[in-house]
Amino acid sequence: MSVVTYQQQAAPILSCPTELREFPDWFHDQQREAWQQFEELPTPTRKDQAWRFANVALLNLAPFKISAPLSEDDRKNVLKYSRGLDQYAGRMIFANAQLIQRDVVSEDLKKRGVIFQPLERAIVEHADLFRKYFMSTEATLGSAKFAALHKALVSSGTFLFVPRGVEIEQPIEIFHWLRHDNMSIFPHLLLVTDELAKVTIIEHFRSCNRTAPGFACGVNDLIAGPGAKVTYVCAQEWASNVIALQMNSTTVDHDASAMSLNLHLGSRYSRFESLSRLIGEGGRSDLLAVAVAKHQQEFDARTLQDHISPHTASDLLYKNALDDRARTIFGGAPRPGRSKKTSCFTCARAAFRQRLPSGSSSLDFWTKSSKGLITQRLAIICIA
Questions:
Q1: Does 383 fall in a domain?
Q2: Is the residue at 77 inside a domain?
Q3: DSSP string covering 10-42
Q4: What residues have CB less than 8 Å from 105, skipping those under 6 apart?
């Protein structure tokens, strides 16, 4: 890796990995290894089961560049249009992978041990905790190559730690913006909740120009400790020519619950992978998503409800509405235990509902499972 200046940051993302921040040596070592992995892993094809039905031709990364710094006018406009919640416990606003505003949590939450920091500070100030959980779960739903690219080039993001017994009443709000043509960003969220903690996070993904091409490759690590309650809401509103990949991993410990709600409205092609791992008895995971696709948009959702421990429950409900020549793909695989013991008393439910016009919109759907108590429902409604 070579150190680059701001003037060189508009280089293509495929030219070489770059050390954009003064991270610790151990993190740069991880990024070098990730770049090597990215180069070695094959590019997905439609022959790969994990990419079946997907328009992989859209995954040409050659045009995209490392995000350049924003002008002062750009920063002001981003802040102006970062409209969301009226009340929040803390907020961060990123644009082109740069943190441009942070509203810190209250002094009371700080005294109780809540850590709310940009990724670049957490890597230094909370290295042990960060290293333990950062991308600790392997990307198993098909995007391992892009997860490696993310790890190699990520330079900003959010770190939130909620200690034992702390309940954050107001949501945490995060914005990620793309500005200028063919820019790329690698947003990251690392949330760690300790025992009996409670938090809600709302994350927005937006573009400054409604038609500008761009590339977003994001990763979320959500850790729900014993008895914790985590709620995550995503509002994806990328511009109509953005290629977006989002890889979310949720780990649910015993007696904990995690609920994710994902709204997909923007982008040209959006692939969303959601891995939910239930590692402790009494854990519960709810996965909800709504996609509204039009014109030539393609939304590609892949999920896994992995019941590693017995006496766990998961419930998935995805709803899509399509118009024009839009396409959606859904691949889901509930896995209720890897042995007779762990598959006992496991409840994994999945429902997928699609609203189609009478035109040329299309749905590709596949799901598989082999054991345990599973309920799957598929409903398709065609509108004349």
A1: no
A2: yes
A3: TSBTTT--EE-S---HHHHHHHHHHHHHHHHSP
A4: 89, 90, 114, 116, 168
Of residues 363, 364, 337, 368, the one with CA closest to residue 350: 368
pLDDT tens for residues 249-295?
999 999 999 999 999 999 999 999 999 999 999 999 999 999 999 99
Domain-embedded: residue 174? yes
User: Which residues have a Cβ under 8 Å from the Cβ of 167 and sit 6 or more positions away?
Assistant: 197, 198, 199
Dihedral, CA atoms, 166, 198, 118, 20, nearest 10 degrees?
A: 140
- Domain range for 235 is 2-45+54-84+92-280
Beta carbons within 10 angstroms of residue 163's beta carbon: 17
Q: Could you give the C-alpha distances from 310 to 137, 278, 286, 341, in angstroms and in order?
A: 20, 9, 17, 7
Per the listing, tokens 């995209």 go with 64
Phi, psi of 109 (to 5 degrees): -65, -35
pTM for the structure as a whole? 0.91
What the block records as the tokens of 243 is: 């290629």
- Residue whose C-alpha is closest to residue 213's, from 249, 189, 242: 242
- Whose structure tokens read 């940051």? 9
Please report whether residue 329 resides in a domain.
no
Torsion from C-alpha of 207, 209, 215, 216, nearest 10 degrees: 0
8 Å CB contact between 151 and 137:
no
Q: Identity (one letter) of the amino acid at 103?
A: D
Q: Which of 65-74, 127-136, 218-227, 251-260 has the lowest mean pLDDT?
A: 65-74
Q: What residue has token string 């043509």?
A: 181
DSSP E strands: which ranges in 186-337? 188-193, 198-207, 214-224, 229-237, 242-252, 257-264, 269-278, 284-293, 298-307, 313-322, 327-332
Q: Is the dihedral of CA 117, 121, 123, 124 positive or negative?
A: negative
- The encoded tokens of residue 258 equal 């995690």
The three-state secondary structure class of 122 is: helix
In total, how many domains does the chain have? 1
